[in-house]
Amino acid sequence: MDTVINAEKISQFDAMIGGAERVVIIGHYNPDGDCVGSVSALSSYLDGRSVGNVVVLPGPYPQFLSFLDSGHRIKAFSIKDASTGGQTVSADAEQAVKDADLMICLDHNTPGRTEGMEPLLREAPCSKVLIDHHPNPESSFYDLVFSDTEMSSASELLFWILMEMPDISSDIRRMELPTALSLCAGMLSDTNNFNNSVTPSTFRMSSLLMDRGVDFTLLNDLIFGRCSQDRMKLMGYMLSNMTIDPETASACMILTRKIQRKYNFVSGDSEGFVNLGLKIKGVEVSALFTEEADRVRVSLRSKGGIRVNRLSETFFHGGGHDKASGGKLTIPVTEVRDYYLSALRQFICDEGITFADASRPSGQ
Ligand SMILES: [Mn+2]
Question: How far does the centroid of ligand 1 lie from the alpha carbon of residue 155, in Å?
Answer without folding.
Answer: 7
